[in-house]
Amino acid sequence: MSLAARICACALVMACSRSSDAPPVPSAPAPTGLPASNLGAAVEQLDRVDGRSPVPLLPAMAAHQKQNMREHLVAIQEVVTALSITDFTGVEAAAARIGFSQMMGQMCTHMGAGAPGFAEQAIEFHHTADRIGAAARERNGGDVLAALGATLQACTSCHAVWKQQVVDEPTWQRLASSLAPSARH
């Protein structure tokens, strides 16, 4: 990527950055205006046309996962912003928020307990993100961009394969226990 292209990409990201004046994210979902019966039918229709594999999650797990995805996007934004000013310490700090840790691995495993292959792909994403920080420690902007590209590719490939499927407790327990680690191997 040429220097001019990098500057343009960074300027675009910085222009889209959140300002301190940004309105707060609503804490409650906006009402749909649909009766529950119509909403259920709409969800069923979406499931039929969206061919991605489901990741069964309890409602609180689904909300938590979506919050994590938003935080991942903020970390990516911070990586790009820091790189645009050659702040490799900032790049490394932002990348560390999406890198692998034992806690992150446990969370991915728990979230993917009912979807064979999901946890492994999610954990690989976090390992891929570790390469951003490694390149930042070497103060190599080109390698940071390459690692960032690989990380974003891991994001898009995961989102291309998986979709959330909110389920009730008995369904989640049944699916998660049928794929327990001892049953996976």
Can you offer a commentary on this structure?
The protein is built from nine helices and two strands. A two-stranded parallel ribbon has the order 1-2. Helix 5 runs antiparallel to helix 6 and helix 6 packs antiparallel against helix 7. The longest helix has 26 residues. The radius of gyration is 19 Å and the shape is elongated. The N and C termini lie far apart (43 Å).
Per-chain topology:
Blueprint: H1 3-15, H2 36-49, E1 53-57, H3 59-84, H4 88-96, H5 102-111, H6 118-137, H7 141-161, E2 162-166, H8 169-178, H9 181-184
Parallel strand pairs: 1-2
Helix pairs in contact: 1-3, 3-4, 4-6, 5-6, 6-7
List keywords for this structure.
185 residues; mainly alpha; Four Helix Bundle (Hemerythrin (Met), subunit A); two-stranded parallel sheet; 9 helices; disordered N terminus
Count of distinct strands: 2
Q: Strand share of the residues?
A: 5-15%
Strand order of the largest sheet: 1-2
Largest sheet: 2 strands, parallel
CATH topology of the domain at 62-180: Four Helix Bundle (Hemerythrin (Met), subunit A)
Per CATH, the architecture of the domain at 62-180 is: Up-down Bundle
Shape: elongated
Q: What's the average pLDDT?
A: 84
The CATH class of the domain at 62-180 turns out to be: Mainly Alpha
Separation, N- and C-terminal Cα atoms: 43 Å
Radius of gyration: 19 Å
Helix/strand/pairing category: mainly alpha
